[in-house]
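=== RUN LOG ===
request id: a7f3
mode: sequence -> structure
chains: 1
length: 429
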Amino acid sequence: MARGLIIAAPSSGSGKTLVTMGLLGALKNKGINAVSAKTGPDYIDASFHALTTGQVASNLDPWAMSQSQLCARAQRAAKGADLLIIEGVMGLFDGAVSGNGSTADLAAALNLPVVLVVDVGSMAQSIAAVVHGFSTLRADISVAGVILNRVASERHEMMLEAALEPLNITYLGGLGRDDELSIPSRHLGLTLPKDFAAAKNVAKASVKRIEQHINLDLLQDIAAPVRSASASKMLAPLGQHIAIARDQAFAFIYPHFLWDWQAQGAELSFFSPLLDEAPNSDADAIFLPGGYPELHAEKLSNATHFASAMHQAATANKLIYGECGGYMVLGQSLTNKQGETHKMLGLLPHSSSIDRPRRQLGYRQLTHNSPLPWPKHLRGHEFHYSSQSGEVNQTLFEASDAQGNVQPQMGCVFGNVMGSYAHIIDAAQ
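=== RESULT ===
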């Protein structure tokens, strides 16, 4: 049975992603099959993990998934592995506006220990108060280990370690301040790691520092067995053969979707609109996931083979579904940040523009009555800088936020073609 643990922190920006990358790579170098997952709906951090593992990281979302679903998905993610490392989200106790969905909630649901990564760049003996508070606030979680980040010197680390000693929490080591161990904030949420030129160097540096300064044997001793779970409910496949767009413009799809659809007997095929490829003609459903179509709008506009095949599929009454970036491409046009407007597929009546000064972000409770073969009530999230214009006769989703506050209706349905800005995570439990 695989064992697991959760990498958390007191706040965002403490170094969780860098530590997780480094641990995964360092364990791999020791011959340990470590796999990973990300807490919450984030695609970007999960894709950073793959820089050191070469494996896709799954998402475990304690706001959108039930405890039984979380356990089943964690067990699936850990299948065949020695160790499952789950990166937390924000601070340990930070969640949705409704107050739930935190990393601590996930730790409690999975009964896995927490390793706390603390940025000590401006801290000395006060580290004891921080770690003590985080380890005692909730009785249903266990903060079993501590990793310090941005340690200034050996003397600084000695002071910090001495302050932590009375807490009886395993000290795993400290990482020094290092310009190599940083991901510019402009890349987080804006581009994937493979589009960030220094990403591989950052990954290599994180592995090297972890190997030098973190006790990996103690880390493995902390890990606990991943809870077994019975088979969980799955979102039905969009069709028996689903053609899925996959390239730099269409990069955001949850691995658990693919696993679930294949487990239910669906055939999956992939195609690249950026290479002007058409979806497999045998497919009875087409999925355009989210991504960054605004960065490739001109190329997509000129992908005539792709466009022709999509129109033929719509005429043949195949189900066509787009999320966020995929939804934008299904519309009439897309105006990028530079103000350049490019023609899109024209299968839905709206147009999109990258014109929001701030991102539209948050969990969504969604209700639909559409050809989607999914339960009426769903949970998802939205994250985008774009807005839509144009008259929409039939929306896809009624929406509310995590607290239940009503939000504007989302998306559009036109016959067998549909989509919205929402990224679906799971059925409402």
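=== NOTES ===
Residues 19 and 214 are 10 Å apart (CA to CA).
The mean pLDDT is 93.
=== END ===
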